[in-house]
Structures are given as C-alpha cells and as structure tokens.
Amino acid sequence: MPDYxxxxxxxxxxxxxxxxQLFPVRRIFCVGRNYxxxxxxxxxxxxxxxxxxxxxxxxxxxxxGADMPYPPASKSLHxxxxxxxxxxxxxxxxxxxxxxxHVWGYCCGLDMTRRDLQNEAKKTGRPWDMGKGFDRSAPxxxxxxxxxxxxxxxxxxxxxxGKVTQVxxxxxxxxxxxxxxxxxxxxxxxxxxDLIMTGTPEGVAAVVKGDVLEGMVEGVGxxxxxxx
Length: 228
Ligand code: MN
Description:
By secondary structure, the protein is mainly beta. It contains four helices and 17 strands. The strands form five sheets. A six-stranded mixed sheet has the order 4-3-14-7-8-11, with helices on one face.
C-alpha cells in the first residue's frame, strides 16, 4: 500500500440488481440535449448537432433509494430522467458497431440540475459544473447486465409524487447508445467504471423538498429518491 498523507477517498459504486456485488464508478459523463423535444424546451435547435458532454464527480452518486438533500445556492432544482450506460471494457476510437461490447450494464439515473446556475452559466459563457456537478446530484437505481437489455428502444418515464412529468422512448434519442459511446471514445479514452448518462426527454421541471421522484426505463428498472 502507498503511504498516503490522508485517507484515500472511498470508491463510489452502483449496486447490481439481485446481487451483493457492486459496480465501482470512475467518472460520470453526461450527454447534453439528446432528445429533440427537450432541446426545443431548452430553447435550442434539435437538428443533429454533434453530441456534447459535461461531467459529474463519481461521488455525486445517490444509490439504494436514499434521500437527496436539496442543494445549496439554488432556487430551481430540476429533474432530468435518463438511461445510464455502465462501461465495463474501456477503449479509444471505438466504432459504432463495436460500442455495445464495451457495456457492462444499464441503470436508471437522475441528472439533477441547479437550473438557475446552469442558465446563468449559459448566459455568461461559463462552465456548467456548478449547475450540474454538485454534491449528490446523481441518484441512480440498480444496474442490470448488458445482455438482458436492448437500448435501442424502451419507455422512459418519471413520476413526481405519483404524477407523470416526463415520458418518452429510447428510440427517440438523437444519438443512440452505440453512437454516444463511439463519439465519446473519440474525445477521451473510456475506462472500466465510467458511467454515461444519455440525456433526458422533455418535461423537465422544478422539484421542492418533500417531493418523491420515481423513474423507470422499461426493461431496466427504477430509480427513486425523495428531496429533503
Ligand atoms: Mn441531462
């Protein structure tokens, strides 16, 4: 063991459905504007511009249905329900055809966003980090192995306090899961443990303390958290 001057950080991990094993997380990449209707509601042109990315720290994860504290410095915490891809085999310059071979599995995730800070960053041309990558900004459900799911289609839905706020289908992703993996791997070398949040459909909205968020992707499972 190296002689660290402080205790090394704990490894963030996502539970595996039906198992005591965990998926250790290295980085969390997120795709911006990957459903046309959401691009329109955010004031953008949904034509097929190249995908773009931002990140969250690995320790932004909230798992096991735990509560999510309302973050500081914001009056507009938005939900973004997304399919999450877990990379099991890394690589650079991965082809679209080979991309799914790099996937360990899938889960449901919430790209929680301090929309007021993100909007201010957009306006001033500053980074999105504080709008997107804050503490506990990434609630996620349990992972399922890749072999049990085809990410080319499937209903994606979010309910807030039992009422549907977001509903769409993975078939409406502007950039498909294999295309996202391939594109991102031409920008960085993907590594085992990387997660990719693939973008949210329309219907994003603000939540308040006490709200219960329940998301699902058909064939993948659920993500649940309560804002406290
Ligand atoms: Mn998002």
